[in-house]
Design goal:
This protein is an all-alpha fold and about 70 residues long. Helices cover about 50% and strands about 0% of the residues. It is built from three helices and no strands. α1 packs across α2. The longest helix has 15 residues. It is globular.
Length: about 70
């Protein structure tokens, strides 16, 4: 492929045991932080706080489990 295209919508789906949110967060942060492209993440399966916490852990390069338990 040629990477991200203007106006493109990416839908990610998989079996329940796959970490879809982790993959989507990597894609969205890469597009927003590295490529400076506007990004929107809509997650129907998790609460806002959970997604925000996962994003912070990913950006801080720390384990989400470590962040939750201290």
């Amino acid at each position: 492929t040629n990477g991200f295209e203007p106006g493109e919508v990416i839908v990610v789906s998989s079996s329940p045991k796959i970490d879809r949110l982790g993959v989507v967060l990597k894609l969205a942060t890469h597009a927003a932080c590295k490529l400076r492209l506007p990004s929107l993440l809509i997650c129907a399966s998790h609460e806002e706080e959970y997604v925000a916490s996962r994003l912070l852990a990913s950006l801080g390069r720390i384990s989400f489990q470590t962040m939750r338990t201290g």
